[in-house]
């Protein structure tokens, strides 16, 4: 144990030296972990660890026990939306109308240990699940965590019971818990058959947010999403439609319960369950309050302050904050919304009246603001928006942006773990500064998920070295922190290998990814998705280190295996197929790579539809290949499509914003309009410099493309001087063997040749080709491309092996 403590302290010391202003908070978090380690060591005085607020908030009966399913009588307490109480009397929920998929759900509960019901808000997911467990699991003991902090206690309780039902209504509430991992669910499900059943619900919008499409192009929250997908892969998913079938509507219409018969009359426009929960009417009441903000408040009608209060709570949920908000925070948040609709000029009602209207159940059902479940840390009242409202806003034609002040207050107020959801939502909306701040706050408590997300945020905004620093620190901590998930460590190390490769260090990444590939295959089997994904990374590193043929063979084999085992639609299959094209292009077979990328894009369009963030990289790669194959006009058209998609799915500051814009500027110039291309490059460079400064990696890439276009315009001296300055600046942020440095050195040689220094230019270009071949191999795309250009300049044979026959040049030779 003392050795472990010493290791943690050594790691903390190293980490703290990297960025004292930020890492001090991480040091404090790890110090708490060390204290816990010491307290648990033999001979130490026993101590009761401080429980997080709500850590034992499990649903219990009046006697304080975990109830048996057959004893459950309060569906609303388990997440079912209440309906209006009829004039003739009745309960909070009407009689159950058996759904067309009820039999499917019941069979899934009987056959599968883990059932997930997915559907829109107010589709009737919780009610269908509630009735199904009554039918299938009457003797199981219900374990229902009322908040995220209680999830670990729920897992322990479910593991202790002879027969337990782990009820996870609104699954998205729990995904940021440390214990929410595939391994946790596997352990529960591995108990004797039927001992633990897991039934969960998830809103369709949240399910879509965990799809692979939200990773490939955007990368915000990719680590959490992959973790959640590993959990979801264990579940039998049933998708429950919001709109009811004709048979379901018929049953509702024939019901003696007036609520059902009334709802069935509106089935042409709304789902029956949706109408029962009063979702559309509540939304309209809120909109009426917003639009009528200048009208004096009348009894039963929401005023401007109430409308602003609800708007603040709705935007908090849209921003990824799914916990109830303490009333003081809501009051602070609502001031901006009130000012937006007129402030004092609209004569806002008193705070107490606004709160009363927003929290009062309307139509006898739900309220616009719902009281929070479970204990609050400071015993304050806390509320969250009715879940129908944020979905309705985002489903609108032009959903309003969330004000920056709202994001800042949420990050400031949120507990570190709450900030993971905020960071993911901010990144997806292109607010990279907010995302970074949220993930940094999450990482202050040594949360490994937050570290992975922070690294992704840094990396995809061009700060590769900073991303590696975070990942290295997180991996070091994961090795020694008690209870750390081994899968999490391997995932961190895979990310490290990825960013090392992106940063130009394929040599350093190769042994790491090779070890991980072997470890994962040995532990989880060669056909496990993570094992196959590691093989994709290994192929990339082989290509970066000059073993192009090996990279291509591995990528082909991995793609074939993934297709066979995982199917065409799986994210790992898509990554492997993409890598086959990458490896083909690295070997200089541009026509072959073009054919592969076109076929892969056609398949993605078939699976995803015509517009998807997945497609950005495909169009960008196709543009590059078309240009290399001698068709710059078609390359420009493909680049325009890549820019269009990037503008839709990422924001300025994201790597794909810069790369697609640079691609378009380059091929615009080469398609015969260099002045227009230079204009695009100038604007892009101005934007990058304003956002990031002159030496940021993305700015360097913009400068490189601009110099290329100046060369095409015949401004050889200007281009040469720009590339010389670029080399000086690039060395401050990238490894000397990075492709950008090599390309800049080669471009300087080309300029020198055009300026008349033929002998020096040829010698310099041959030295670059030597370095390219030593680092990336003689068949690498860069090696082959510059060898051809050398032949065009000097009349020498276009053979990379001949170019490398000279004495090796130093890697930093210019």
Automatic annotation (TrEMBL):
<dbReference type="InterPro" id="IPR053137">
    <property type="entry name" value="NLR-like"/>
</dbReference>
<protein>
    <recommendedName>
        <fullName>Tetratricopeptide repeat protein</fullName>
    </recommendedName>
</protein>
<dbReference type="InterPro" id="IPR011990">
    <property type="entry name" value="TPR-like_helical_dom_sf"/>
</dbReference>
């Amino acid at each position: 144990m003392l050795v472990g403590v010493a290791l943690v302290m050594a790691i903390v010391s190293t980490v703290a030296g990297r960025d004292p202003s930020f890492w001090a908070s991480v040091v404090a978090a790890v110090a708490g972990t060390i204290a816990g380690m010491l307290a648990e060591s033999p001979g130490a005085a026993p101590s009761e660890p401080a429980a997080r607020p709500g850590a034992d908030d499990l649903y219990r009966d009046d006697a304080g026990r975990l109830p048996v399913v057959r004893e459950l009588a309060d569906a609303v307490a388990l997440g079912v939306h209440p309906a209006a109480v009829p004039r003739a009397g009745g309960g909070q929920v009407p009689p159950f109308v058996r759904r067309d998929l009820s039999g499917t759900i019941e069979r899934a509960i009987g056959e599968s240990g883990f059932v997930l019901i997915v559907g829109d808000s107010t589709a009737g997911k919780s009610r269908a699940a509630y009735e199904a467990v009554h039918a299938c699991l009457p003797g199981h003991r219900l374990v229902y965590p009322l908040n995220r902090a209680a999830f670990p206690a729920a897992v322990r309780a479910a593991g202790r019971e002879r027969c337990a039902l782990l009820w996870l209504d609104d699954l998205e509430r729990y995904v940021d818990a440390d214990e929410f991992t595939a391994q946790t669910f596997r352990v529960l499900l591995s108990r004797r058959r039927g001992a633990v059943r897991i039934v969960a619900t998830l809103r369709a919008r949240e399910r879509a947010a965990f799809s692979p499409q939200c990773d490939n192009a955007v990368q915000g929250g990719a680590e959490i999403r992959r973790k959640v997908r590993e959990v979801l892969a264990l579940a039998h998913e049933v998708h429950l439609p919001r709109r009811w079938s004709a048979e379901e509507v018929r049953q509702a219409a024939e019901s003696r319960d007036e609520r059902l018969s009334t709802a069935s009359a509106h089935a042409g426009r709304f789902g029956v369950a949706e109408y029962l929960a009063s979702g559309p009417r509540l939304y309209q009441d809120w909109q009426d309050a917003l639009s009528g903000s200048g009208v004096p408040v009348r009894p039963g009608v929401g005023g401007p302050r109430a409308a602003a209060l609800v708007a603040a709570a709705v935007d908090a949920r849209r921003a990824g904050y799914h916990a109830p908000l303490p009333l003081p925070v809501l009051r602070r948040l609502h001031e901006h919304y009130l000012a937006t609709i007129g402030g004092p000029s609209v004569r806002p009602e008193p705070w107490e009246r606004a709160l009363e209207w927003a929290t009062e159940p309307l139509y006898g059902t739900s309220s616009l603001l719902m009281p929070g479940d479970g204990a609050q840390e400071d015993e304050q009242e806390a509320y969250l928006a009715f879940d129908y409202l944020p979905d309705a806003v985002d489903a609108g034609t032009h959903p309003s942006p969330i004000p920056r002040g709202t994001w800042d207050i949420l990050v400031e107020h949120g507990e570190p773990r709450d900030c993971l959801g905020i960071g993911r939502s901010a990144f997806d909306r292109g607010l990279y500064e907010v995302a970074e701040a949220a993930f940094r706050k999450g990482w202050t408590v040594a949360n490994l998920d937050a570290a992975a997300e922070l690294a992704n945020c840094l990396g995809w905004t061009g700060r590769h070295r900073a991303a590696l620093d975070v990942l290295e620190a997180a991996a070091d901590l994961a090795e020694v922190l008690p209870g750390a998930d081994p899968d999490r460590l391997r995932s961190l190390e895979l990310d490290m290998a990825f960013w090392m490769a992106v940063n130009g260090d394929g040599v350093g990444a190769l042994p790491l990814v090779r070890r991980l590939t072997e470890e994962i295959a040995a532990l989880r089997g060669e056909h496990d998705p993570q094992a196959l994904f590691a093989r994709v990374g290994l192929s990339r590193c082989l290509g970066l280190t000059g073993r192009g043929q090996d990279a291509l063979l591995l990528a082909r084999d991995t793609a074939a295996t993934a297709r066979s085992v995982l199917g065409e639609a799986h994210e790992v299959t898509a990554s492997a197929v993409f890598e086959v094209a990458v490896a083909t292009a690295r070997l200089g077979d541009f026509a072959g790579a073009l054919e592969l990328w076109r076929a892969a894009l056609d398949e993605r369009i078939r699976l995803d539809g015509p517009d998807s963030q997945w497609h950005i990289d495909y169009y960008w790669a196709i543009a590059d290949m078309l240009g290399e194959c001698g068709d710059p006009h078609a390359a420009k058209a493909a680049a325009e499509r890549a820019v269009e998609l990037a503008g839709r799915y990422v924001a300025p500051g994201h790597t794909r914003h810069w790369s697609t814009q640079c691609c378009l500027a380059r091929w615009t110039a080469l398609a015969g309009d260099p002045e227009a291309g230079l204009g695009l490059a100038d604007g892009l460079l101005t934007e990058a410099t304003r956002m990031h400064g002159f030496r940021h990696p993305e700015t360097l890439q913009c400068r490189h493309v601009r110099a290329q276009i100046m060369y095409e315009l015949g401004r050889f001296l200007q281009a040469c001087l720009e590339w010389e300055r670029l080399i000086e600046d690039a060395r401050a942020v990238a490894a000397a063997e990075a492709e950008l440095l090599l390309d800049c050195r080669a471009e300087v040689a080309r300029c020198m040749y055009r300026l008349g220094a033929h002998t020096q230019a040829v010698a310099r270009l041959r030295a670059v080709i030597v370095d390219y071949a030593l680092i990336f191999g003689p068949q690498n795309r860069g090696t082959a491309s510059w060898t051809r250009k050398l032949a065009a300049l000097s009349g020498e044979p276009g053979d990379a092996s001949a170019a490398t026959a000279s004495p090796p040049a130093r890697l930093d030779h210019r």
